[in-house]
From TrEMBL:
Residues found modified as 4-aspartylphosphate: 67
Keywords for this protein: Phosphoprotein
Pfam families hit by this protein: Response_reg
Listed GO biological process terms: phosphorelay signal transduction system
Name of protein: Response regulator
Entry-linked SMART domains: REC (SM00448)
Domain Response regulatory: 12-133
Alphabetized InterPro entries for the sequence: CheY-like_superfamily, Sig_transdc_resp-reg_receiver, TCS_response_regulator
Length: 138
């Protein structure tokens, strides 16, 4: 768990991705926006769901950023579990993935979950971070 303190207050964000480089790049982009937030990280859906269950006693995240292709439990299974849990179902989930699969796009569309493709250029992460922070009320 990493705490970033800068100027503007923001709620916790849960980033679920098995790629440490992608976790780092997204964390840096969110920090560059000048917000104080707690970025919690999980490397797969199973780990994320365990964290969320533990957080029910305290403060749930205001946003979940979720990859699709991960070991143990992928993004599709994780979204289904989150949406089936009445305590978690109201948390916005954004799929952030390299997948360009039409099947994935249709799946998440039917679940009401937006899918954003991971950028090829590091500079594009800041634009995505702005969009994500708006979604969680920052």
């Amino acid at each position: 768990m990493i705490v970033k303190s800068i100027e503007k207050q923001c709620f916790p964000i849960l980033l679920v991705d098995d790629d440490e480089d992608d976790q780092f790049l997204m964390g840096e982009a969110l920090t560059a926006m000048g917000y104080s937030y707690e970025l919690m990280r999980a490397s797969n859906g199973f780990e994320a769901l365990q964290m969320l269950q533990e957080m029910k006693e305290g403060r749930l995240p205001s946003l979940i950023i979720l990859d699709v292709n991960m070991p143990k439990m992928d993004g599709r299974q994780t979204v289904l579990k989150i949406q089936q849990d009445r305590d978690l179902a109201s948390i916005p989930v954004i799929i952030f993935t390299t997948s360009a699969s039409l099947i994935d796009k249709l799946f998440f569309l039917t679940k009401g979950v937006e899918m954003i493709t991971k950028p090829c250029e590091v500079s594009e992460y800041n634009q995505i971070a702005i969009k994500l922070l708006k979604l969680c009320g920052c």
